[in-house]
Write a structure and sequence with these properties.
8 helices, disordered C terminus, 221 residues, five-stranded parallel β-sheet, alpha/beta, three-stranded antiparallel β-sheet
Length: 221
C-alpha cells in the first residue's frame, strides 16, 4: 500500500501529477478542493459553509477541513493507497494529519514565485461556456476567442497581480511551516516543477522508487 501527500503552490501542477500517479498505481486521488466543489454544487450543509467562507474571501477553517479529510479517509476505499491533494495547508493541519495517519512520502512540487506569476496570469476562461485556457500551453486558434463556442476569453476575477501577490504571501506564511514539519520527519521529496509535465512525473517516481513511465518511441524518419 502506498500513501502519499502532494503539496505545491498554485500553478505547480499538483492535480495533473496526482491524477497520473493515481491512475497508474491504483491509488485513490483525494482532492479536498474537489470535495468542496461537489458540496457547493449540490447545495449541502457543508457546501453552504464553504460558500460563506469563499464569499468572505477566507479559507475554510481548520476544524471543518480536518473533519472532511477524516471522514473521507474513513471510507477506506483506498485498497492500494491514496494520494492526498490540497491538504494539509498549514502547520496545524499537518500536525493533525501526522497524529492520525502514516504516509510514505510528501511530494513537494517546488515552483518559484516568478514562474507561478507567469503561469497563473496566462490563464483565461471562456465567458460563455467556461472552458479553461492557458496562453502558454493551450492557445486558442483565434486570439481572444474560445475554440468551442467563440465566446470571449477573459481573465479570472482573482487572477490579478495584487490578488496573486496576496495568495503567494499567504501560501508561504502558512504552508512553508507545514512542509518544515514533514521535513523534520524526513518525509519530503522535492521535485523541480519548472520542468515539463512528463519530466516532473519521472522525477517524482525516481525519488519515490516507483517504476518509471515508458518513454515514447520516436518514429523512424
Amino acid at each position: 500500500m502506498r500513501k502519499y501527500v502532494i503539496m505545491g503552490i498554485q500553478g505547480s501542477g499538483k492535480g495533473t501529477q496526482a491524477k497520473q500517479l493515481a491512475a497508474e498505481f491504483d491509488l485513490v486521488h483525494i482532492a479536498v478542493g474537489d470535495i468542496y466543489r461537489w458540496h457547493v454544487q449540490y447545495h449541502t450543509k457543508l457546501g453552504a459553509q464553504v460558500r460563506r467562507a469563499m464569499s468572505a474571501g477566507e479559507l475554510v477553517d481548520d476544524a471543518l477541513t480536518e473533519s472532511v479529510v477524516r471522514d473521507r479517509l474513513a471510507l477506506h476505499d483506498w485498497n492500494y493507497g491514496f494520494i492526498l491533494d490540497g491538504f494539509p495547508r498549514n502547520r496545524r493541519q499537518a500536525q493533525f494529519f501526522m497524529e492520525g495517519y502514516d504516509v510514505d512520502a510528501v511530494i513537494h512540487l517546488d515552483l518559484p514565485d516568478s514562474e507561478v506569476r507567469r503561469r497563473v496570469l496566462a490563464r483565461r476562461l471562456c465567458s460563455n461556456c467556461g472552458m479553461d485556457y492557458n496562453l502558454i500551453e493551450h492557445r486558442p486558434v483565434r486570439e481572444g476567442r474560445c475554440d468551442a463556442c467563440g465566446g470571449e476569453l477573459v481573465s479570472r476575477e482573482d487572477d490579478t497581480e495584487e490578488a496573486l501577490a496576496a495568495r503567494l504571501a499567504d501560501y508561504h506564511a502558512k504552508t512553508d511551516p507545514a512542509l518544515e514539519l514533514f521535513r523534520a520527519k524526513e518525509l519530503v521529496v522535492s521535485v523541480d516543477a519548472t520542468a515539463s509535465k512528463p519530466a516532473v512525473q519521472r522525477a517524482i517516481r525516481e525519488q519515490l522508487g516507483l517504476p518509471l513511465p515508458a518513454r515514447k518511441q520516436s518514429r523512424a524518419s
